[in-house]
Amino acid sequence: MEFIQSKVIPNLYLVKNPIKNKDSLQNDIKKVVLDKVNSQIANQIDNTKK
Fold first, then answer.
1. How much is the pTM?
2. What digits encode the pLDDT tens for the residues 28-49?
3. CB neighbour class for 13 (10 Å; exposed up to 12, middle 13-18, buried from 19)
4. What does the DSSP 8-state code read for residue 38?
5. Residue 29, SS3?
6. Using an 8 Å Cβ cutoff, are 32 and 18 in contact?
7. Which of 9, 33, 49, 50 has its CA 20 to 30 A from that of 24?
8. How far apart are CA 22 and CA 20, in angstroms?
9. Alpha helices (H) in the chain, listed in sequence order
10. Which residue from 13, 50, 43 is spatially nearest to 28, judged by alpha carbons?
């Protein structure tokens, strides 16, 4: 399974070769979203410290 970021819409990700288990798919999507949000927040915090 692979998440591919859209080149047209930056916040849109496509799932290539999704797994069949919907619960696992949903958990993996949540993890990707949380990682993305956490990195954006960390960047904002770093920028305010400068």
1. 0.70
2. 999 999 998 999 899 888 888 7
3. middle
4. H
5. helix
6. no
7. 9
8. 6
9. 22-49
10. 13
